Amino acid sequence: MNGWLLIDKPSGVSSHDVVHRARGIIPGCRIGHTGTLDPLATGLLVLGIGNTTRLSEYLISQPKQYTAVVRLGVTTTTFDADGDIMSEEDVKIDAADIESMLPNFIGCIEQVPPIYSAIKIGGERAYKLARSGKNVKMSPRSVRIDKFVMVDYCEPDITLEISCSSGTYVRSLAHDLGASIGCGAHVLCLRRDVVGPFSLHQSYQLEDIEQMNDSCELSSLLLPSGDAMVGWQTVCLGADDVQKIRHGNSIKGDNSVSENLALAYDVEGELIAVLEGQPEFGCWQPRKVLMTK
Question: Distance between CA atoms of 178 and 235, rounded to whole angstroms?
Answer without folding.
Answer: 49
